[in-house]
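job 3f2a | input accepted
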Amino acid sequence: MQAFGTDVRNRIIKLVKGILAQNSLAADITLSTKLVDAGLTSMDMVNLMLGVEAEFDFTIPQTEITPENFQSVETLERMVATQLQPATAA
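job 3f2a | predicted structure (90 res):
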């Protein structure tokens, strides 16, 4: 299960860094880095949401599209893992 979490984390970090690179920004992204502090705008957050949906092949439920879930890599990872859990249990 540890490898699963690490894979999810690395994929999210890659998405965040890709969006930052499109904006000609570079930031050291850690688990707890606040994404807005790293330079992501509200439009970037929409792109991140769409990127997460495409990367992990699921639709984020409306109830999960909250500022709390998009604060950091850590909060995003937790939300993605929760959404993927039923699929991995099957």
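job 3f2a | The chain has a mean pLDDT of 92.
job 3f2a | closed
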